[in-house]
Amino acid sequence: MGLGAKLRRVRRQAFELADVCWDDIGFGIIPTDYMYVMRCPRDGEFSNGTLEPYGNIELSPSSGVLNYGQGLFEGLKAYRKEDGSILLFRPEENGVRMRMGAERLCMPAPTVEQFVDAIKATVLANKRWVPPPGKGSLYIRPLLMGTGAVLELAPAPEYTFLIYVSPVGNYFKESYRRISSPPIESWVFVHEGLAPINLVIQNDYHRATPGGTGGIKTIGNYASVLKAQSEAKEKGYSDVLYLDSVHKKYLEEVSSCNVFVVKDNTISTPAIRGTILPGITRKSIIDVAVSLGFQVEERLISVEEVLDADEVFCTGTAVVVSPVGSITYHGKRIVFEQMVGDMFIVGYPMEMAELGLCPNNSTLFLQDYKWVLPRIRWDGHCSYAKKVVIGYLLRWISAIVFFVTRIIHVPALPSLSAMM
């Protein structure tokens, strides 16, 4: 066993993991050790949050969240590197979005700094539940809700900010192998069984209306899509693609993710106009696509355009980036040809392995995008941004056709000392 392999083995043994069969976890609730709780009155400010054992909470039957749906939630993930340190992807963006939603629902909210600090504290308290590299991620669910008792239609008198976490498995099967390919030795990251999703355009139900709450992550937005989604799944579709409620001809979003349309070298996505959630993965995809030279348009997209697209894909925290294989509209099914099929390969330079940045989960570390909080374990290791952004962009929205045998080399990263 070489020195590098021995060092990696020591690092893996240095952190404790929960007694879980990591190969079998799905996307569901697994009770962890701690949750974070912070409260404040309506006209007060959040302070003095605490970590409490994970468990049920006491809630008044007349609480604002139960009676009037006064509640928001966020979703983000933590990933583990091979050296045991933990990465968070753009958590400050979730904090900003929660504050925007809270203002719309007449709720006080933690500051962005309080939000990020609470996320860190919760993840670190549950760090043994962060899956090993390549086995999944720790899903983080912040909640903000009116927990004070209220009978009249009015803002609740007290609010609770709560964070719980659960390890979740990968959506796609992943495997790795080491290859030698001039001019550089690489790790190869293989996604197998990457099945495109099949959407149906919904005409009878609408996710949001102008002037409503479609642009914030309020809990009611998701309950309202369950019927349409259930009907679609009963017919064999993966999910529903919603149109605007006024003209009933412009794309909005899928039940829980944003949508992108690719035509030639142009990537288009519905503009944020108050009825579409400003997704953080969506924002990141746009940033990276622009930097790669693609023309990106945020605008109204008619249903006719999507049916004539070269490719369509969805983005979100849970789905990351998912290709759309078909869209059905008025009984007519449009199939989008998959350039690679059910497998694609992305190569990572060995310099990444030397930095402890070997492929894990679905993230891509980019030197130019300071998107991952550094020093999540305060261990001196710097962190970088999500691997999936470039990997998936190059797979689905690039004008270059990548075949199974094609290897993409990511430019070498600088040394750790240079990044500190």
UniProtKB/TrEMBL annotation:
MF GO annotations: branched-chain-amino-acid transaminase activity
Q: Which residues cross the membrane?
A: 393-412
Among PROSITE patterns, the record links this protein to: AA_TRANSFER_CLASS_4
What residue range is the signal peptide?
none
InterPro entries registered for this protein in UniProt = Aminotrans_IV (IPR001544), Aminotrans_IV_CS (IPR018300), Aminotransferase-like (IPR036038), B_amino_transII (IPR005786), BCAT-like_C (IPR043132), BCAT-like_N (IPR043131), BCAT_family (IPR033939)
EC primary class: transferase
Keyword list, A-Z: Amino-acid biosynthesis, Aminotransferase, Branched-chain amino acid biosynthesis, Membrane, Pyridoxal phosphate, Transferase, Transmembrane, Transmembrane helix
Keyword Transmembrane helix included in the entry's annotation: yes
The protein's Enzyme Commission number: 2.6.1.42
> Per the entry, which co-factors are needed?
pyridoxal 5'-phosphate
List the catalysed reactions: L-isoleucine + 2-oxoglutarate = (S)-3-methyl-2-oxopentanoate + L-glutamate; L-leucine + 2-oxoglutarate = 4-methyl-2-oxopentanoate + L-glutamate; L-valine + 2-oxoglutarate = 3-methyl-2-oxobutanoate + L-glutamate
A GO BP term, please? amino acid biosynthetic process
Q: Name one GO cellular component term.
A: chloroplast
Q: Which family does it belong to?
A: Belongs to the class-IV pyridoxal-phosphate-dependent aminotransferase family.
Q: What is this protein called?
A: Branched-chain-amino-acid aminotransferase
Name the lineage.
Eukaryota, Viridiplantae, Streptophyta, Embryophyta, Tracheophyta
